[in-house]
Amino acid sequence: MLRDITIGQYFPGNSLIHRLDPRFKIVITLIYILMLFTGSNIICLAVGGVYTIAALLLSRIPFKMFWKSVKPLLPFLLLTAVLNVLLVDSGDVYFKWKFIKITAGGVNISVFMIIRIVLLIMGSSLLTYTTSPITLTDAIERLLSPLKLLRFPVHELAMMMSIALRFVPTLIEETDKIMSAQKARGAEIDTGSFVTRAKNMISILVPLFISSFRRADELATAMECRCYNGGEGRTRLRQLKASARDFIALAVTLLFYAGALTVGLLFK
Amino acid sequence: MENMIEISGLHFSYPSDDGKEAAEVLKGIDLTIKEGEFVAVLGHNGSGKSTLAKHINAILLPTEGKVIVDGIDTADEKRLFELRQCAGMVFQNPDNQIVSSVVEEDVAFALENLGVPYDEMRRRVDDSLKAVNMYDYRLHSPSQLSGGQKQRIAIAGIIAMQPKCIILDEPTAMLDPQGRREVMATIKKMNREQGITIVLITHYMDEAAQCDRIVVMDKGTVALDDTPRNVFSHVEEVMRIGLDVPQVTELAWELRKAGFDIPQDIITEEECVAAIKKLMATA
Question: Which domain holds residue A83?
C-alpha cells in the first residue's frame, strides 16, 4: 500500500516542456510568478492566463492533474473571496441588505485574486510535474552556486537533498516491513482512537529511526570509500547544456511579461 | 608477481568510551596477498574478518603494525584518496552504498569525486556498467532493481575507479540464490578478465571453494591459509573453528570415516559425483 506513493509529483514525459533545461525552467517560473504579481488588473492576468494555458497544453499532461493541485486550496480561496466581497466597499453598489453590502470593487478584487492564485498554482505545478526531483535538485545547486562565494554550503545542501530523495523509496519499503512485523506481534496500528493510534505509531517510528541511523553510518563509510570529499573539484556526469529552445522559451516568457506590463499600463 | 597487500604484525582494538581496556579484535596478523590473486577470508562472527577488511582501505588504522597496499602505507593520510582509488570496497547491504537515484549517476559518483573530466567519465561509466551486465538499466532508479542487480551496480561503482584490488565484505549475505550467483559470476569475471585482485569475505563455503586461496580467521588471528583443497581437507580443524566445509566435502569425509575409499580433497559437486561413481563401479 505504501509502495504506490510517488515522490514529488513528477510525470515522466518527453514534451517540449519536459526537455527544457531545468535551470531555465526555474528562472522562467520565477519570472512567471513576478508577472502574475505585478499585473495590476484583470487584463494583465488574461495575458498570464493565455501563457499558462499554452504551457499546460505543451506539457501534454492531462488538465485534471492541474485541477488536482488546485483543489485542496479551494475552500481557502472561496473563504477569502467571500470575505473580500463582503468587506471591500468601493465602486457601484450591487446589493444592499442591512449591514451586507456588495460592491463592484469587492467583486473585482475577489475574481482577480482567485484567478491569480489558481494560475500561480497551476504554473508552479507545471515545474514539478515536468522535472524529476533529482534534476530539480541539480538545477537548484547550479543556480545557487554563486552563493558559494559567501561560504553558503550549496553543494552539501544539494547532496543532502538528493540522498534524501534516494532513500525515500527505501525507507517506505522499510516502514512497510516494520508495520507488518509489528502487526504480526499483535500491534494494533489501524484501530482505536486517534490518540491510541498515534501512540502505537511509536512502535514503528523507533525501529525506523534506529535503522535510518545505521543506514546513514554505512552510507557515510561507503561514500568515503569512493573518495567523497565535499564539493570541491567535483565534476559531473549530468551535464546541463542550454540549447536554443531554452533561450527561445525564456524570450517568449519575457515577451509575455512585457506584454502584460504594457497592457496593464494601457488599460488603467 | 608483485605483492598487492602486505599486512605485518597487525594489532587492532576498538577505542573504548569508558576508559576500560578495549578488547583486542586483531591479534598480530601477517598476511601477504599477491597481485591478481582471488582470496577468500572465512571466519565466524566476531573472528575479526570484517575488521581486517576495513584496514585494507584505511577505514580503520592499525593500533600496531603496518598495512601496505600497492606500496602505499594506509596510515599515510596524504595518499588516502590514491589508496582508496586503488583498493575499492563493496559492502554487505547494497541499499546502503548506493548514493544516487539514477543507476549511471551512482556508478559515476567516485569519478565525480575524483574530478574525472566528462568524456572520460562517460566512457568509464559505460564500460563499468557493461562489465557487470547492467548497461541496459543505466537510467533506472536503484529502487526498481533486485538485490543482486543493486550489488552489481555497487561493484560497477567501484570498478569505475579502475582499482587494482577490490575488497568485498560479505557481498552476497543479503541476496537470494539467484542474486548470489550473479554477483559471484561478476566477481570472478573481474578477477579473470581484468586481473583485479579480489579479497572476498564470506561465510558461504561454496563461494570460498571457488577462490584460489582461503584465509581462515579465528579469534583475531589467521588460523589457516592455503588453497581451498588443502584447507577443506582439514575437516576436523575447520569444524573446530566453528565453520562448515562444503557439503560435498563433508559427505566425502563421512564416507571415508565409514570406511569407503574416497579422496579427501573433494570440493566440487562434479568431483564428488565422479568419485562416488568410481566407488560404485568398483564395489
Answer: 2-166+240-266
* Mean pLDDT per 10-residue segment, chain B (283 residues): 88 77 85 94 88 92 92 91 93 92 92 93 95 91 90 94 94 91 92 93 88 91 90 85 85 87 83 88 80
Go through the domains of chain B in sequence order and give each one's CATH number. 3-245 (3.40.50.300), 246-283 (no CATH)
Query: Interface of chain B against chain A, CB under 8 Å?
Result: 57, 59, 81, 84-85, 88-89, 91, 93, 95-102, 104-105, 108-118, 121-122, 125, 141-143, 154, 157-158, 161
Mutate to test the interface with A, among B72, B96, B106 (most CBs of A within 10 A): B96
pLDDT in tens, A143-186: 998 998 898 899 999 899 889 888 988 898 899 999 999 889 88
Domain membership of residue A191 (yes or no) is no
Q: pLDDT digit string (tens) for B74-98?
A: 999 899 999 999 999 999 999 999 9
Q: Is residue A224 part of a domain?
A: no
Q: Give the amino acid at B204.
A: Y
pLDDT for B19 = 63
Residue A92 lies in a domain: yes
Query: Is residue A24, in this structure, part of any structural domain at all?
Result: yes
In this prediction, residue B16 carries a pLDDT of 72
Structure confidence by residue, pLDDT tens digits, A36-57 = 888 777 888 888 899 999 999 9
Residues in chain A within 8 Å Cβ distance of B121:
235, 237
**Under an 8 A CB cutoff, do A166 and B100 touch?**
yes
Could you tell me the CA-to-CA distances from B188 to A98, B40, B265 in Å, in that order? 89, 12, 22
pLDDT of amino acid A51:
92
Q: Cell numbers of A134, please?
A: 533529482
Pairwise CA distance, residues A188 & A201, whole Å: 9
Instruction: Using CB atoms within 10 Å of the CB of residue B112, give its burial: 0 to 12 exposed, 13 to 18 middle, 19+ buried.
Output: buried
Amino acid type, A10:
Y
Q: How far is CA A180 from CA A110, A184, A186, A197, A214, in A?
A: 50, 6, 10, 15, 21
Alpha carbon of B182 to those of A135, A242, B132: distances in Å? 31, 40, 9
Would the CB atoms of B96 and A219 count as touching at under 8 Å?
yes
Structural domains in chain A (count)? 1
